[in-house]
Each structure stands twice: as structure tokens, then as C-alpha cells.
Design goal:
322 residues, alpha+beta, three-stranded antiparallel sheet, 12 helices, 16 strands, disordered C terminus, Pirin, RepA_C
């Protein structure tokens, strides 16, 4: 029997408001009410940008052995990420630094992609604009969060990647990276008591930037903020934001196909379904326009209004390779 994924949360928030809606749902659904209410209350309409390939495949969620290559298959696309090597000062040998992973790596990449498309150049300033963006995402540069961001930035800067597309118009990347130079997050002290301001910049890899420019996908910044600490939900939101608004009819997606694209380290399909469903609920809550049902066979996706205003959809008008 089909079941609406959000459990009617959007309708409750619209009809009764946040506080009353929270009182009407089960305790485990209250966080979903909060996510939906925050996104619906967003009046600024700011957007983020990602490359089409990240809508169909993704980075790992957890840390891998530093020398392990990551390969992930999606619909007609495979992402391969090779770990980079670094040499510490005073050392004679290089060591693997490992591939980027988790929510922090995804948020850094979203910022870089958004700024590159917005400014029309593959040279992205870090400074104040990144500090402000991280602040809007609820991420601070200090403490453990800052340490995690710096680690993921180093992994992004040193890794090599390849998106391999199937089809006649395939974009086959022989070898590339996310960035060509920079991404060291050098912090330079300002006047006493005013904290630090980054004065570094990043130059995106030319092949990656060219593919991003030709195949960008717009996302709602408010949704990214609500999912900034949930890497699995963030991936699902990006996937739905890409797929739903271009559907012409209700489209089923079986659990096996979902496990191939999103599953990792799940011994049984039943275990995958449980984890997937928990990650899907926040993703749909952050995309109130989404119409998604779950049943014994998988998901049923319905044509849905884009999470981004129609006047901004031109940014994502180009199609991926067939």
C-alpha cells in the first residue's frame, strides 16, 4: 500500500502553523515540521548550485581508508574519486590523505559550485563571502566544525575524480579534480578583536568548471541549510530537486535501483530500506513541493513543482549527457 512520505506534514504546517502542527504529530515527526516550516518561511529565495553528476551519484558518507578509491554508480553515470597524496614539512615521503566524505565536504563543494556559476569564473574567492555563506548554513569556522571543514577542504584539493557518462553525448573525464589550486583556507589576522578573514582563493579545475557551467542544477539555499548536517538527506534532496520537476508522469523507482544509487555497506535490502526511509523524510520535508510515495516495490515519484522559483530555473535548463 502506497504511503505519502511526508505524512501530510506540509499540509499541517500550512493549515495550522508550526506550533500547532508540532503538537499534532508524533514526537519523531516534529523535526520534520521544523524543517518544513523553516523552508516555507524563507522569503529571500536564495539559491545554491550543484553539478548534474552530483544529483545522480555522490561522495561517501563516512571516512574510508586513506588509500581507498571511491566508486559510485548512478543512473547512466559513475563517479570515481582517487585519494590524493601530500608531503608534510620535514618528511621525505608522501602519504595518502583520503577522499572527501560526509556533509562538510558536500557543503564546501556546494559553495564553490554556487559561487563559480554566480560569478561566471572558475576563480572563487574564499574570504568574507564564504564566511557569510557558512554562517547562513549554520556552520562556524571555529572549534570542531572548523577543524572538520579544514580537513575536508584538504581532501577536496588533493583528490582526482572522473565522471563517466553513458550514451552518445557522454562526458568522459579521463582525469580531473575539483580544484586546480588553492583551497588551503589560509587565515590572516585582522585587527585585534575582529577575528580572522580568509585571503585565499580557489581555482576550480577547468574540466569540472566547464561541465558545471553547462549542466548546473539550482537548489534552494534554505533547504541546504536545514540539511547541512545530514549528508544522506542532502543527497536525496539534490536528487529529488533534479528529477521531480522534469517528470511528465508518475514514475516508479524500485528498491533495487535505489540501493544501487544510494546504498552503501548494507548487507540486506531490508536494512537499506530502513536507513533510506529515515534519510528520505527530512529531504522531502525540505522540499515541500515534492510529491513522493513509498510502497513495497519502492518509490513512486510524481511531477512536482521545482523547489526554485521558475525565473531562476534557467540556471538549470541544460540537460545532462544522454
Amino acid at each position: 500500500m502506497a504511503q505519502e512520505v511526508d505524512g501530510g506534514v506540509r499540509q499541517l504546517v500550512l493549515a495550522h502553523g508550526r506550533a500547532t502542527a508540532r503538537a499534532m504529530v508524533e514526537p519523531e515527526q516534529r523535526s520534520l515540521v521544523d524543517i518544513t516550516a523553516e523552508v516555507l518561511a524563507d522569503d529571500e529565495g536564495k539559491i545554491g548550485i550543484t553539478y548534474t553528476g552530483f544529483c545522480l551519484t555522490s561522495l561517501p558518507h563516512k571516512r574510508l581508508p586513506d588509500d581507498q578509491v571511491w566508486e559510485k554508480e548512478g543512473h547512466k553515470v559513475t563517479l570515481t574519486v582517487e585519494p590524493g597524496r601530500i608531503k608534510r614539512p620535514g618528511q621525505t615521503q608522501t602519504r595518502y590523505i583520503g577522499v572527501p566524505y560526509g556533509a562538510r565536504a558536500r557543503m564546501i563543494l556546494l559553495y564553490l559550485q554556487t559561487q563559480a556559476v554566480r560569478t561566471g569564473t572558475r576563480e572563487v574567492e574564499l574570504g568574507r563571502s564564504m564566511r557569510d555563506w557558512l554562517g547562513r548554513m549554520g556552520l562556524s569556522w571555529g572549534g570542531e566544525t572548523g577543524k572538520a571543514l579544514r580537513e575536508q577542504a584538504a581532501r577536496i584539493a588533493h583528490c582526482h575524480l572522473r565522471f563517466s557518462w553513458e550514451g552518445e553525448e557522454a562526458d568522459g573525464w579521463v582525469k580531473g579534480g575539483f580544484v586546480r589550486s588553492g583551497l588551503r583556507f589560509h587565515a590572516h589576522s585582522r585587527q585585534e578583536g575582529q577575528g580572522e578573514l580568509w585571503e585565499d582563493r580557489v581555482v576550480l579545475d577547468e574540466v569540472f568548471y566547464d561541465s558545471l557551467r553547462r549542466h548546473p542544477v539550482p537548489l534552494r539555499e534554505a533547504a541546504l541549510r536545514e540539511l547541512a548536517a545530514k549528508s544522506a538527506s542532502l543527497d536525496l534532496y539534490i536528487w529529488l530537486a533534479y528529477r521531480l520537476h522534469i517528470l511528465q508522469k508518475a514514475t516508479p523507482v524500485r528498491w533495487g535501483a535505489l540501493a544501487q544509487q544510494f546504498g552503501s555497506n548494507y548487507g540486506r535490502l531490508r536494512s537499506f530500506r530502513e536507513h533510506f526511509s529515515k534519510a528520505l523524510a527530512p529531504a522531502v520535508a525540505a522540499y515541500p513541493e515534492a510529491r513522493v510515495e513509498s510502497n513495497d516495490e519502492g518509490l513512486l515519484l510524481y511531477p512536482s513543482r521545482s523547489p526554485v522559483a521558475p525565473k531562476l530555473m534557467a540556471l538549470g535548463a541544460s540537460k545532462p549527457p544522454a
